[in-house]
Recover the amino acids of this structure.
Protein backbone atom coordinates (compact mmCIF):
# COMPACT_ATOMS: atom_id res chain seq x y z
CA UNK A 1 0.00 0.00 0.00
CA UNK A 2 1.01 3.61 -0.53
CA UNK A 3 1.71 6.00 2.34
CA UNK A 4 -1.68 7.73 2.10
CA UNK A 5 -3.52 4.42 2.12
CA UNK A 6 -1.59 3.25 5.18
CA UNK A 7 -2.41 6.46 7.05
CA UNK A 8 -6.12 6.10 6.33
CA UNK A 9 -6.15 2.40 7.25
CA UNK A 10 -4.23 2.89 10.51
CA UNK A 11 -6.31 5.91 11.48
CA UNK A 12 -9.50 3.88 11.16
CA UNK A 13 -7.91 0.97 13.01
CA UNK A 14 -7.05 3.29 15.90
CA UNK A 15 -10.52 4.79 15.89
CA UNK A 16 -9.38 8.39 15.28
CA UNK A 17 -11.42 10.88 13.28
CA UNK A 18 -9.67 12.97 10.65
CA UNK A 19 -10.01 16.01 12.93
CA UNK A 20 -8.40 14.17 15.86
CA UNK A 21 -5.49 12.95 13.78
CA UNK A 22 -4.99 16.44 12.34
CA UNK A 23 -4.54 17.89 15.84
CA UNK A 24 -2.18 15.10 16.85
CA UNK A 25 0.23 15.77 13.98
CA UNK A 26 0.02 19.57 14.01
CA UNK A 27 -2.53 20.46 11.33
CA UNK A 28 -5.25 23.02 12.00
CA UNK A 29 -8.19 21.27 10.34
CA UNK A 30 -9.39 17.90 9.05
CA UNK A 31 -9.17 18.94 5.39
CA UNK A 32 -5.40 18.45 5.54
CA UNK A 33 -5.88 14.80 6.52
CA UNK A 34 -8.52 14.32 3.82
CA UNK A 35 -6.06 15.59 1.20
CA UNK A 36 -3.27 13.36 2.52
CA UNK A 37 -5.48 10.28 2.59
CA UNK A 38 -6.57 10.93 -0.98
CA UNK A 39 -2.94 11.00 -2.10
CA UNK A 40 -2.96 14.71 -2.90
CA UNK A 41 -0.07 15.72 -0.63
CA UNK A 42 3.57 14.60 -0.54
CA UNK A 43 4.72 14.26 3.07
CA UNK A 44 8.12 15.26 4.39
CA UNK A 45 10.10 12.77 6.46
CA UNK A 46 9.34 14.74 9.62
CA UNK A 47 5.59 14.52 8.95
CA UNK A 48 5.82 10.80 8.24
CA UNK A 49 7.55 10.42 11.61
CA UNK A 50 4.78 12.48 13.27
CA UNK A 51 2.10 10.23 11.74
CA UNK A 52 4.02 7.15 12.87
CA UNK A 53 4.17 8.42 16.47
CA UNK A 54 0.48 9.34 16.47
CA UNK A 55 -0.59 5.97 15.03
CA UNK A 56 1.78 3.83 17.09
CA UNK A 57 3.80 2.32 14.22
CA UNK A 58 7.20 2.84 12.60
CA UNK A 59 7.84 5.30 9.75
CA UNK A 60 8.63 2.27 7.61
CA UNK A 61 5.15 0.88 8.21
CA UNK A 62 3.61 4.23 7.29
CA UNK A 63 5.52 4.25 3.99
CA UNK A 64 4.81 0.57 3.34
CA UNK A 65 8.50 -0.40 3.05
CA UNK A 66 8.50 -2.63 6.15
CA UNK A 67 6.23 -5.62 6.03
CA UNK A 68 5.09 -6.00 9.62
CA UNK A 69 1.69 -7.12 10.86
CA UNK A 70 -0.75 -4.41 11.81
CA UNK A 71 -1.27 -3.92 15.53
CA UNK A 72 -4.22 -5.97 16.71
CA UNK A 73 -7.42 -4.03 17.42
CA UNK A 74 -7.67 -3.28 21.13
CA UNK A 75 -10.49 -4.80 23.19
CA UNK A 76 -13.21 -2.39 24.29
CA UNK A 77 -11.89 -2.23 27.86
CA UNK A 78 -8.49 -0.87 26.75
CA UNK A 79 -8.26 2.70 25.51
CA UNK A 80 -5.09 3.82 23.66
CA UNK A 81 -3.49 6.91 25.16
CA UNK A 82 -2.42 9.69 22.85
CA UNK A 83 1.31 10.37 22.41
CA UNK A 84 2.68 12.66 25.10
CA UNK A 85 5.42 15.28 25.27
CA UNK A 86 7.06 17.11 28.17
CA UNK A 87 6.88 20.89 28.56
CA UNK A 88 8.46 23.14 31.21
CA UNK A 89 6.51 24.10 34.34
CA UNK A 90 7.48 27.72 34.94
CA UNK A 91 7.51 29.26 38.40
CA UNK A 92 8.37 32.79 39.50
CA UNK A 93 9.36 34.72 36.38
CA UNK A 94 12.48 36.83 36.79
CA UNK A 95 12.33 40.36 35.41
CA UNK A 96 14.21 40.72 32.13
CA UNK A 97 14.94 36.98 31.89
CA UNK A 98 13.40 34.94 29.02
CA UNK A 99 10.44 33.00 30.34
CA UNK A 100 11.96 29.61 29.46
CA UNK A 101 15.36 30.39 30.99
CA UNK A 102 16.67 27.66 33.28
CA UNK A 103 16.19 29.68 36.46
CA UNK A 104 12.45 30.02 35.75
CA UNK A 105 11.78 26.31 35.21
CA UNK A 106 10.57 24.30 38.21
CA UNK A 107 10.27 20.99 36.39
CA UNK A 108 8.57 19.30 33.43
CA UNK A 109 5.06 17.91 33.02
CA UNK A 110 3.39 15.68 30.44
CA UNK A 111 1.03 17.06 27.83
CA UNK A 112 -0.75 15.32 24.91
CA UNK A 113 1.40 15.84 21.83
CA UNK A 114 -1.48 17.26 19.74
CA UNK A 115 -1.92 20.28 22.06
CA UNK A 116 0.23 23.22 20.96
CA UNK A 117 1.69 24.62 24.18
CA UNK A 118 5.20 25.76 25.05
CA UNK A 119 5.11 25.82 28.84
CA UNK A 120 2.78 25.62 31.83
CA UNK A 121 2.05 27.83 34.82
CA UNK A 122 0.50 26.99 38.20
CA UNK A 123 -2.56 29.15 38.81
CA UNK A 124 -2.53 31.05 42.10
CA UNK A 125 -5.69 32.42 43.71
CA UNK A 126 -9.34 32.25 42.62
CA UNK A 127 -9.53 35.10 40.11
CA UNK A 128 -10.40 32.70 37.23
CA UNK A 129 -12.73 30.38 39.13
CA UNK A 130 -15.79 31.13 36.97
CA UNK A 131 -13.83 29.92 33.94
CA UNK A 132 -13.28 26.62 35.77
CA UNK A 133 -9.65 27.39 36.65
CA UNK A 134 -8.99 27.04 40.37
CA UNK A 135 -6.11 27.76 42.71
CA UNK A 136 -3.34 25.22 42.09
CA UNK A 137 -4.51 24.18 38.62
CA UNK A 138 -1.90 23.87 35.88
CA UNK A 139 -2.56 26.09 32.85
CA UNK A 140 -0.91 25.36 29.49
CA UNK A 141 0.42 28.39 27.61
CA UNK A 142 1.32 28.89 23.95
CA UNK A 143 4.04 31.53 23.86
CA UNK A 144 2.99 34.60 21.84
CA UNK A 145 3.01 38.36 22.34
CA UNK A 146 -0.52 39.06 21.04
CA UNK A 147 -3.95 37.52 21.65
CA UNK A 148 -7.44 38.20 20.35
CA UNK A 149 -9.92 40.36 22.22
CA UNK A 150 -11.48 38.43 25.11
CA UNK A 151 -9.03 35.52 25.12
CA UNK A 152 -7.49 34.27 28.37
CA UNK A 153 -3.76 34.91 28.50
CA UNK A 154 -0.76 34.88 30.79
CA UNK A 155 0.09 38.54 31.33
CA UNK A 156 2.82 40.40 33.18
CA UNK A 157 2.29 43.92 34.50
CA UNK A 158 5.49 45.83 35.28
CA UNK A 159 7.82 43.46 37.10
CA UNK A 160 5.10 41.53 38.93
CA UNK A 161 4.52 37.78 38.71
CA UNK A 162 2.57 36.52 35.71
CA UNK A 163 -1.20 36.66 36.08
CA UNK A 164 -3.96 34.87 34.16
CA UNK A 165 -6.74 37.15 32.88
CA UNK A 166 -9.06 37.82 29.98
CA UNK A 167 -7.55 40.55 27.82
CA UNK A 168 -9.66 43.26 26.22
CA UNK A 169 -8.44 46.03 23.91
CA UNK A 170 -10.42 49.19 23.25
CA UNK A 171 -8.44 51.69 21.25
CA UNK A 172 -5.82 53.08 23.62
CA UNK A 173 -7.10 51.11 26.62
CA UNK A 174 -6.31 47.59 27.85
CA UNK A 175 -8.42 45.76 30.44
CA UNK A 176 -7.35 42.63 32.30
CA UNK A 177 -10.57 41.02 33.52
CA UNK A 178 -10.88 38.24 36.10
CA UNK A 179 -13.48 35.47 35.97
CA UNK A 180 -14.60 36.32 39.49
CA UNK A 181 -17.02 39.18 40.30
CA UNK A 182 -15.13 39.84 43.54
CA UNK A 183 -11.98 40.83 41.62
CA UNK A 184 -12.02 44.24 39.95
CA UNK A 185 -10.74 44.63 36.38
CA UNK A 186 -7.28 46.11 35.88
CA UNK A 187 -7.54 49.04 33.47
CA UNK A 188 -4.61 50.68 31.68
CA UNK A 189 -4.83 53.77 29.49
CA UNK A 190 -2.43 56.06 27.68
CA UNK A 191 1.22 55.41 28.44
CA UNK A 192 0.28 52.84 31.11
CA UNK A 193 -0.65 50.42 28.32
CA UNK A 194 3.09 49.81 27.87
CA UNK A 195 3.18 48.29 31.38
CA UNK A 196 1.19 45.29 30.12
CA UNK A 197 3.09 42.44 28.45
CA UNK A 198 1.32 39.43 26.93
CA UNK A 199 3.35 36.30 27.67
CA UNK A 200 1.16 33.75 25.93
CA UNK A 201 -2.29 32.35 25.16
CA UNK A 202 -3.92 29.90 27.55
CA UNK A 203 -4.82 26.77 25.55
CA UNK A 204 -5.85 24.35 28.29
CA UNK A 205 -5.68 23.48 31.97
CA UNK A 206 -5.60 20.53 34.35
CA UNK A 207 -7.29 20.34 37.73
CA UNK A 208 -4.86 19.36 40.46
CA UNK A 209 -6.82 17.31 42.96
CA UNK A 210 -6.07 18.08 46.58
Amino acid sequence: MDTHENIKRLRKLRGYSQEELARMVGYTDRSSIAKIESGGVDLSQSKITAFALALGVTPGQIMGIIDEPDPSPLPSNVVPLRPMKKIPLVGQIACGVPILAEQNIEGYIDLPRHIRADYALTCKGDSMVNAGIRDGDVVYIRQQSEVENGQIAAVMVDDAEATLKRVYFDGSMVQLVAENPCVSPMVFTGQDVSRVHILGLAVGYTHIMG
